Amino acid sequence: MTDLAARLDALEHRLQLAEDKLAITQLIASYGPLVDAGRADEVGQLWTEDGEYDVEGWAMRSRADIHAMVLSDAHQRLITNGSVHFLGPVWVEVAGDEAKAVCDSLLVLNGEEGWRVARGSVHRFQLVRDGGAWRIKHRISRQLDGSQSSRDLLPL
After folding, report:
1. Parallel/antiparallel/unpaired status of strands 83-87 and 58-60
2. H-type helices in 38-155, by residue range?
3. How many beta carbons lie within 10 A of that of residue 34, not counting itself?
4. Whole-number Å distance between alpha carbons of 61 and 44
5. Where in the numbering of this chain does the SnoaL-like domain appear (predicted)?
6. Distance of alpha carbon 36 from alpha carbon 48, whole angstroms
7. For 10-38, how does the pLDDT look when each residue is reduced to its tens digit (9 = 90+)?
8. Which structural domain range is residue 88 located in?
9. pLDDT tens across 24-79, in order?
10. pTM to 2 decimals?
11. Based on the structure, what is the number of domains in the chain?
12. How far is CA 5 from CA 10, 12, 15, 16, 81, in A?
């Protein structure tokens, strides 16, 4: 392999890594606006068919479960009163067709007293390349309540 070919291979690898990280960042950033809009189909499509979402009090084990969560009475009450699911900057690590990501989030709700932060959480994602697109295989969310178990989800 010539020096030029090696440099082009390295550049191609770096570009693919940057594109993968950007795609994953955009996928995770899309969750908040989609879930606040109640767009169950699009929220479900962020996950693989058998994707899991483990959030305190709710274990979803498929894309259909996640779709149903968005349409649930509990979620519909949140969004009809006004909600903002804000996921902060994402730390992403890619290894071939698999990746992991971590971010914090705030859930801001509108109520009689105005807007208030209802929850601060950490989210750990396992993602896979599925049909040419990145999708969530597993997501675990825990309230950042000071517990060691929630802090263990944060990157080192």
Report:
1. unpaired
2. 40-45, 63-71, 73-81, 148-151
3. 19
4. 11
5. 18-139
6. 21
7. 999 999 999 999 999 999 999 999 999 99
8. 3-151
9. 999 999 999 999 999 999 999 999 999 999 998 789 999 999 999 999 999 999 99
10. 0.93
11. 1
12. 9, 10, 15, 16, 57
